[in-house]
Amino acid sequence: MAHYEIYADDGTAQRDACPRCGDSFLADHGDRKHCGKCGYTEWE
Q1: Which parts of the chain register pLDDT below 50?
Q2: Residue 41 is assigned to a ligand binding site
Q3: Phi, psi of 39 (to 5 degrees)
Q4: What is the reported pLDDT for 1?
Q5: Number of C-alpha atoms within 13 angstroms, CB side, residue 37?
Q6: Which parts of the sequence belong to the Small ribosomal subunit protein eS31 domain (predicted)?
Q7: 8 domain residue, yes or no
Q8: pLDDT score, position 25
Q9: Would the annotation count 39 as a binding residue?
């Protein structure tokens, strides 16, 4: 299972930064994106 989408042209990963705390990334759980540090959740 891939954790990030990798762009072939430059090898960088696409990750969503947390808008609340800013220094961690959102985990994609299918129906929501969640920050493990501050608890911020975006429901889809």
Answers
A1: 1
A2: no
A3: 90, 5
A4: 44
A5: 10
A6: 3-41
A7: no
A8: 87
A9: no
Number of independent structural domains in the chain = 1
Q: Is 38 annotated as a binding residue?
A: yes
Report the distance separating Cα 29 and Cα 10, nearest Å: 26
Q: Is residue 10 part of a domain?
A: no
In whole angstroms, give the CA distance from residue 24 to residue 9: 25
Q: Which residue, among 28, 29, 16, 27, has the nearest Cα to 37 in the 3D structure?
A: 27
Indicate whether 44 belongs to any domain.
yes
21 has binding-site annotation? yes
Could you list the beta-strand ranges (E) of the chain: 5-6, 13-14, 27-28, 32-34, 41-43
Residue 41: domain span: 15-44
Residue 9 to residue 5: CA distance in whole angstroms: 12
Is 19 inside a domain boundary? Answer: yes
